[in-house]
């Protein structure tokens, strides 16, 4: 994160079947000389805590001891199950929830999302792409609010269902 600030963790979702890639390990795909996962981890470097939800991988961007790893239950349970698993390792007031396949995400964008989530009336701030579509796995949440909206059974649930508008 640009000018890292205390109080914000990063939860990076790096599991999934990558069906559109023929089952290829999407976080390991190389873009611009680095894996997709390493590029996202570079954007969140400096977060108070970094949690990757998915199978352990070798990292080029961060020392192994700077990243906590966990898995969703059951494996393949979907992104909301992954968020629930990773959130168990987060204690900061804010958390960035990110897909591992955001190769052009920057620390500056995450910091802008954090500022949006800090607004008094906000529960979260989500990235909107140039086509006007919300990218629900590029968001910063108030951690307490994210916990409050997680369903009791998160398996197979869509991330957009966590948002009210």
Short description:
This protein has 4 helices and 8 strands.
Give an overview of the whole structure:
By secondary structure, this protein is of the alpha/beta class. It has a single domain, classed as Spore Coat Polysaccharide Biosynthesis Protein SpsA, Chain A (Alpha-Beta Complex). Helix content is 22%, strand content 22%. The chain contains 4 helices and 8 strands. The strands form 2 sheets. A 6-stranded mixed sheet has the order 5-4-1-6-8-7, sandwiched between helices. It has a two-stranded antiparallel sheet with strand order 2-3. A hairpin with a 2-residue loop joins strand 2 and strand 3 (34-35). It is globular, with a radius of gyration of 15 Å. The two termini are 27 Å apart. The model has no long low-confidence stretch (mean pLDDT 91).
Offer a few descriptive terms.
165 residues; alpha/beta; Spore Coat Polysaccharide Biosynthesis Protein SpsA, Chain A; 6-stranded mixed β-sheet; two-stranded antiparallel ribbon; 8 strands; 22% strand; globular
Q: Largest sheet at a glance?
A: 6 strands, mixed
Spans of 5+ residues with little confidence (pLDDT < 50)? none
CATH homologous superfamily descriptor: Spore Coat Polysaccharide Biosynthesis Protein SpsA, Chain A
The quaternary state of the protein chains shown equals single chain
According to DSSP, the number of beta strands is 8
Organism: Candidatus Frankia alpina
Protein name: Molybdenum cofactor guanylyltransferase
InterPro entries: MobA-like_NTP_Trfase, Nucleotide-diphossugar_trans
Keywords: Nucleotidyltransferase, Transferase
């Amino acid at each position: 994160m640009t000018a890292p600030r205390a109080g914000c963790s990063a939860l990076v979702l790096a599991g999934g079947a990558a069906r559109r890639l023929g089952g290829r390990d999407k976080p390991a795909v190389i873009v611009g000389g680095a894996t997709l996962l390493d590029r996202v981890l570079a954007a969140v470097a400096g977060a108070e805590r970094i949690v990757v939800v998915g199978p352990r991988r070798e990292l080029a961007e961060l020392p192994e001891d700077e990243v906590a790893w966990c898995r969703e239950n059951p494996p393949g349970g979907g992104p909301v199950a992954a968020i629930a698993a990773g959130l168990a390792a987060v204690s900061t007031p804010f958390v960035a929830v990110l897909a591992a396949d955001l190769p052009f995400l920057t620390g500056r964008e995450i910091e802008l999302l954090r500022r949006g989530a800090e607004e008094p009336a906000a529960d979260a701030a989500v990235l909107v792409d140039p086509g006007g579509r919300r990218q629900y796995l590029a968001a910063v949440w108030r951690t307490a609010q994210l916990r409050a909206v997680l369903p009791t059974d998160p398996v197979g649930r869509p991330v957009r269902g966590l948002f009210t508008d």
